[in-house]
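Encoded backbone
================
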Amino acid sequence: MAGGRIRDNAAVIKTRGGVLLAVVLLLSGGCGSGEKPTAPRRATGSDSTPAVAENTRPGTKDWRVRKTGAEHAIEGYADHVSVLPGESFRLFVSTTAKGYTVDAFRMGWYRGAEARMVWTSPHQAGAKQAAAKTTGKTHTITAPWRPSLTVSTSDWPEGAYLLRLDADSGFQRFVPITVRSPRTAGKVVILNGTTTWQAYNMWGGRDLYKGPSGFDGRSRIVSFDRPYDGDGAIKFLAFEQPAIALAEKTGVALAYETDNDLDRDPHLLDGARSLVTLGHDEYWSAAMRDETTRARDAGVNIAFLGANAVNRHIRFEATGLGADRLVVCYKSADEDPVKNPADKTQDWRLPPMPRPESNLIGIMYTCFPADGAWKVYRPENWLFAGTGVRKGQEFPGMVGPESDAVTAGGPAPRPMEVLAHSSVQCGNYTTTSDATYYTAKSGAGVFATGTMRWVCAMRGSACGHGVNGKAAAFVDRVTENMLHAFAAGPAGRAHPATDDLAKIKAAKDRGAQGADLE
């Protein structure tokens, strides 16, 4: 995000740094061919996938944090971002209570319960641990704590987990961890946006946006060796959990990985059917981007269910707890002390080595704060099969608080189809936002929603911003269509994109707006 932060459901925004960069961009929409929608090809064998079997098990409705209490009433972090099934990890817990317990919840569908408790700890003695520590010129915040307990994941299925810390006082907080998949071949890979969670983590008083003195006092390097702020899982719950529940409900074969895993393993996506990044996945390393591009060029489909993805260039460094525990992002090439221009951590699109994110996504980040209705432009596209939408139909509130668009300054892979073209209020000016689908030479399909509220809209009216139940039903069906088609193999073979960018450019050249492009 360029100038703000999102606390929950993208509802509360505080501007930062005092500057909003206005980018004048060429935006585009699409044209219809009059064809009837055809249903996407369903993934074969989904009835027997582990997700189906797992989600028939009894769920646990009481999994949420009900009361966090004072800022440090109870909190914790793990010494691993992800572990393989059966591996152990250590928890570091601090509490003002005499004792606490830990419950581990696997997130999924579970017939609407959306979680299943897989483990409960014995009662633990509580202890208040050391205060936050700030390190050097990078203003890195860590929690220099002693380990509290070791947790084994024996018999834990692959998936995204929330560990709930329950203090004797009644206060609670989450610690997220992923039990990652040993293999991704033949599966749709769900990517937890762990680097973005950490970038916006204000625990200890600093993140990559702000410190006690504002933007200048921000951290340049943030550490996983500390708890997350708020309830401990703000970003996961706002931008990921609803999409995970929906994906598990479909029954397609799923794998779970994190940004840290994608950085570490240059063959992580070998044989995968698709990679799905969720509502806010902004911070990407070169290794993450290289592996995803390589996978696309080998036929792996990609879905971007958010906006502002792959915007910030980062690199990882180690701490005493292990590799990839530090996220480095100076947001300034001049300030970053690394010598190699390719490793500097300014935005991907900026000098000294500009590599716009649209090379991968198809569109790129253009607006914050954005607010608008998501407007259908290609109702005949296969992604909209079964939705009954018509050209020009709008879904209020679905664009925001950040949005993407096809731009003049960003390269656009071809052929590309613009699925939605929406008028957006961006602060004090009006612009447009796009959703797109393109197909690569390998046959891979790449879908981008163009809005950060796609996952939020799965909640319907609970998302706020004017989003309603019709939007939730629409988003769910489109996402289900995408998941089934992307699980079946390179989507471009069955659903090639119909390029329409030349027509859109001509329309923009004559001054057409998002509301009247024909």
